[in-house]
Write a structure and sequence with these properties.
Low-confidence stretches: 217-235
Helix content: 55-70%
Largest sheet: 3 strands, antiparallel
Order of helices and strands: HHEHHEEHEEHEHH
Strand content: 5-15%
Distance between the termini: 71 Å
Bound molecules: zinc ion
Length: 235
């Protein structure tokens, strides 16, 4: 599943912060890019680049290969972004958010809330009762909070996230099917190749019968070679 580049960038920035923006841009434009190239292109110190790369690596968002520099004798690391992992952690994050919102919605629908008219301190019924329905911050009498709008807001958010997740899942499904179909096609092709080989094998077996007559010739040739070898050794 691949997200649009803008979204990938947005997610990566939430991981690295704004400092990582130039690095993210470079990683998104090329694969297998050496950390020295990354440092040069982003105009940043190699130590900073390494630090950022390790953060991404710890989130499974990049992979690397390394090659030994024959002249200098050390390893150079080449980094590649893993867009699949980016979307995976994005989906995970959104799912967690949906769960949180659902819990919040349940509590908003189940409980009564009280609010301070002065500065908006919000308490549950039990909490408000503990303070005898007076604000713990300023002492003002609390009023019951009308949370209808809040509930509508949470519901809307859950709905939007649900649509987005469904779209992402559809993309993932389509991609999985693509991969599956490709694999099937590959297996089918391999089977064909094996069949051809089997047919060829039969042909060769049949052909071997007349070839047998020629074998003594081949033996003669071989002995001729060995003679030549021993002859050269004597020299
Ligand atoms: Zn208050």
């Amino acid at each position: 599943m691949r997200l649009p580049p803008k979204k990938i960038e947005e997610i990566l920035i939430t991981v690295l912060g704004e400092v990582g923006k130039p690095l993210i841009k470079e990683l998104m434009s090329k694969q297998n890019i050496s950390e020295f190239d990354l440092a040069t292109r982003t105009n940043k110190d190699i130590k900073i680049i390494r630090k950022l790369l390790y953060v991404l690596y710890n989130h499974n968002l990049v992979s690397f290969t390394r090659k030994k520099d024959k002249q200098k004798g050390w390893y150079i690391y080449y980094w590649t972004l893993q867009p699949e992992s980016v979307s995976f952690s994005y989906v995970k994050m959104k799912r967690e958010l949906v769960e949180k919102l659902k819990e919040q919605l349940a509590s908003e629908e189940k409980e009564l809330f009280f609010v301070c008219p002065k500065e908006g301190t919000r308490l549950t019924f039990d909490q408000a009762m503990d303070f005898e329905f007076h604000c713990p911050e300023c002492g003002e009498l609390l009023g019951q909070d009308d949370n209808k709008e809040r509930i509508v807001g949470i519901r809307t958010q859950i709905g939007q996230l649900g649509v987005e997740l469904e779209e992402l899942m559809q993309v993932r499904k389509n991609r999985r099917k693509e991969v599956k179909d490709k694999r099937k096609a590959l297996v089918a092709r391999k089977k064909k190749i094996v069949k051809k080989k089997v047919v060829k094998g039969k042909v060769e077996k049949k052909a071997k019968v007349p070839v047998k007559k020629e074998k003594p010739v081949a033996v003669k040739k071989a002995s001729g070679k060995s003679v030549a070898k021993t002859a050269s050794k004597k020299k």
